[in-house]
Amino acid sequence: MRVLHVLPVASLALLLCLWASPTIATSYVLCPSADETITEESPCPTECYSDTQCESNASLCCPTSNCGRQCLAGVTVPHTPPVVACLYADPDTVGTCAEFCSSDSDCVVDGEICCPNSCGHTCTSGTPVTPICRVILESRNGTQPRIGEYVPQCDGEGRFAEAQCHGSTGYCWCVRPDTGEPVGTAISRQPQCNNCSHNGQVNYPGDTFPNDCNTCTCFEDGSFACTEIGCGH
């Protein structure tokens, strides 16, 4: 996990200082784009309905170009986890004078980091720092990427660009701009990233959202479909 430490410079002012550890990227496995799958000639061949019906060497049940579903090997794409910060306690406040941790590896609860509490250190949930993408790039200090390393692309506001590409694999995919979480499928060219706007709420491919008493699902082309339950109004 990427960690930032926030140091006190005044009673209410905060100064961000970057932790020296490297960015650790997790990964997601996405279906290949239906535009790049080759299927049988028969209309809508469906050999699966969920990933649990696929064997391990073809672990994902993916949509195909002619409206069916097929077990296919997924495409692994990287994802950089959120940057979090320690908020130092007010130096005039006395905390617990004990060292419950000395590094983040001492924290056993997922998402917790080792932070000072004025009079010791304890494991606590970090505070997300935004915009994440800009912080990640600035932390590199101009360092050139290593061979095979994925470096996220940012938009003008410091958020993740909706379309991300990994030059070493040749694959591109769409993400949620605020978190960089991959959505939809992976494709070997620049993708057209769409979202579904409904009642002022932006939803991304794969998201479900309520519409009165019904549930809607967002698709990669920006359309969405809803259940058709009578709501009894």
UniProtKB/TrEMBL annotation:
<dbReference type="InterPro" id="IPR008037">
    <property type="entry name" value="Pacifastin_dom"/>
</dbReference>
<protein>
    <submittedName>
        <fullName>Equistatin</fullName>
    </submittedName>
</protein>
<keyword id="KW-1015">Disulfide bond</keyword>
<dbReference type="InterPro" id="IPR036201">
    <property type="entry name" value="Pacifastin_dom_sf"/>
</dbReference>
<keyword id="KW-0732">Signal</keyword>
<dbReference type="InterPro" id="IPR036645">
    <property type="entry name" value="Elafin-like_sf"/>
</dbReference>
<dbReference type="GO" id="GO:0005576">
    <property type="term" value="C:extracellular region"/>
</dbReference>
<dbReference type="Pfam" id="PF00086">
    <property type="entry name" value="Thyroglobulin_1"/>
</dbReference>
<dbReference type="GO" id="GO:0030414">
    <property type="term" value="F:peptidase inhibitor activity"/>
</dbReference>
<feature type="domain" description="Thyroglobulin type-1">
    <location>
        <begin position="130"/>
        <end position="193"/>
    </location>
</feature>
<keyword id="KW-0964">Secreted</keyword>
<dbReference type="Pfam" id="PF00095">
    <property type="entry name" value="WAP"/>
</dbReference>
<dbReference type="InterPro" id="IPR008197">
    <property type="entry name" value="WAP_dom"/>
</dbReference>
<feature type="disulfide bond">
    <location>
        <begin position="165"/>
        <end position="172"/>
    </location>
</feature>
<dbReference type="InterPro" id="IPR000716">
    <property type="entry name" value="Thyroglobulin_1"/>
</dbReference>
<dbReference type="InterPro" id="IPR036857">
    <property type="entry name" value="Thyroglobulin_1_sf"/>
</dbReference>
<dbReference type="Pfam" id="PF05375">
    <property type="entry name" value="Pacifastin_I"/>
</dbReference>
<feature type="domain" description="WAP">
    <location>
        <begin position="69"/>
        <end position="129"/>
    </location>
</feature>
<feature type="signal peptide">
    <location>
        <begin position="1"/>
        <end position="25"/>
    </location>
</feature>
